[in-house]
Amino acid sequence: MENDRTTPLVTPSSNKKRVLSRSASNARDELHLFRSWLKWLCVDQSNPWTACLSWFVFIVFAIVVPALSHFVLACDHCDTLHNRPYDAVAQLSLSSVACLSFICLSSFVRRYGLRRFLFFDKLCDESEIVRKGYTKHLNRSLKVLFIFVLPCFAAESAYKIWWYTSGGTRIPFLGNVFVSNTVACILELCSWFYRTVVFFLVCVLFRLICCLQILRLQDFAEVFQVDSDVVSILREHFRIRRHLRIISHRYRIFILWALIFITASQFTSLLMTTRSKAHVNIYHTGELAVCSMSLLAGLLVLLRSATKITHKAQGVTCLAAKWHVCATIDSFDTAENDSPVNRGGGTSSDGSFDYDDVGDEEDELDNSKFVPSYAYSTISFQKRQALVTYFENNGAGITIYGFMLDRSSLHTIFGIELSLVLWLLGKTVGIS
Length: 432
What we know:
This protein has helices at residues 16-20, 32-40, 48-73, 87-112, 114-117, 128-165, 177-220, 230-273, 282-336, 375-378, 381-393, 407-428; strands at residues 399-400, 403-404. By secondary structure, it is mainly α. A two-stranded antiparallel sheet has the order 1-2.
């Protein structure tokens, strides 16, 4: 009966031997359901058998089926409604991003293992709030995955079913036209679903890891609300920065090449659809539009997760500066008066508090509340000033080969993309 119980994946750090003895994966831990989904999606590579199966499914659905769909099943001599002039762009775009995602995911799992890659082996040193919050995000990650995949898959299914049932192709490779069309339609839909799931899976895993670091940063903000010393604050910040560097090092190739592939895909699509002889309607560009929306949605998940965690990490500097200011002001007030001055912060002109008016815009890292002045009694002004200077000159966040992914970087990327779009439109439709 004891062997059938679910073994917790995250344990408190009170018993060091128990924590260190759990380096191997457990079949009944919190990752059990996640591993089961990976097996059903044919991306599990926990053993040689599943790895071979995973690579076989990848070659079939990411390379063989798209190639057959374009070179064999595509109907070049069909009428104007069933002709697919943009099929090559859609198939190549989705397959290239799926290949990048699958290779990166295989490398992650093979090199680090699922527990280590998702930082579950480091949760033993975190607080109970961080552990419960991360487990909650893990359980929601697959729901987030299918929230992005299923609407696009429904649109793609409607398009493929219409295309085959209305006479898009009549190649009886199984002896019967209807059976052949049914099998071909199912294979194409499975190929599209597989490639999209693999891409979004890597994006959702990156989002999940970023959620862990955001939880840690919010928990780290609590050190400024209690009587802490500079050494403990620095040690915890060193650990957070190290994990952010690890995440950046692991994902920088995927984020960079995903941005390049998706940008090239969108510009190729724009170039082909803005030609003078291009036929643009729902029948011709429907599949291309669904493919573009899927790729852009995954790219937005990556960029939003990276910029959000960078923004939270940079918010630590503002919090430390506010902590230093509050401690300095109260130390002077205490020197002049016998008792500390109570600073409420966030009061309106009539003396009422306006904390409830900000909604969810404020959190532990970004708020307009005063910080309790525990610091002046235990930490000198010089130490606090040195700590704030350290935060100002050692920003943390997600980087790509040294370039910080923050909101300024997004503005730069948007400006470059917009310039290229306007240049391309100037060459095709004559916009000057």
